[in-house]
Amino acid sequence: MSGLHLIHSHFIGGLLGYKIFYTPIGDSSDKAETEVVPASYTSHSLPFMDQYTEYIIEMLAFNPAGDGPRSHLVNVRTLQ
Q: CA 20 to 30 Å from 8, out of 41, 43, 56, 71?
């Protein structure tokens, strides 16, 4: 997900981690799957995505005060 970047200088307090939200485009449930990733991670794979499927992905950072703003939306298509 090279299109999603967070700027660490925007955080107040200790960064605890990231939440990654992904939803298949055209999914009638409109419910995003969520992965929670520790702050120490610099990359993360989303292994439960379906093959040959288009997704909308966004993420946010969180700290003890709560969730930060969500990133811009990124559209991706999975491979085989």
A: 56
Query: Is this structure's pTM higher than 0.70?
Result: yes
Buried/exposed code over 14-49 (b: 16+ C-beta within 10 A; e: otherwise): ebeebbbbbbbeeeeeeebeeeeeeeeeeeeeeeeb
CATH of the domain at 43: 2.60.40.10
Q: What is the rounded distance in angstroms from the CA atom of residue 17 to the CA atom of residue 60? A: 9
Q: What contacts 70, CB < 8 A, 6 or more positions away?
A: 21, 58, 59, 60
Q: Is 19 within 8 Å of 59 (Cβ atoms)?
A: yes
- Assigned domain for 30 exists: yes
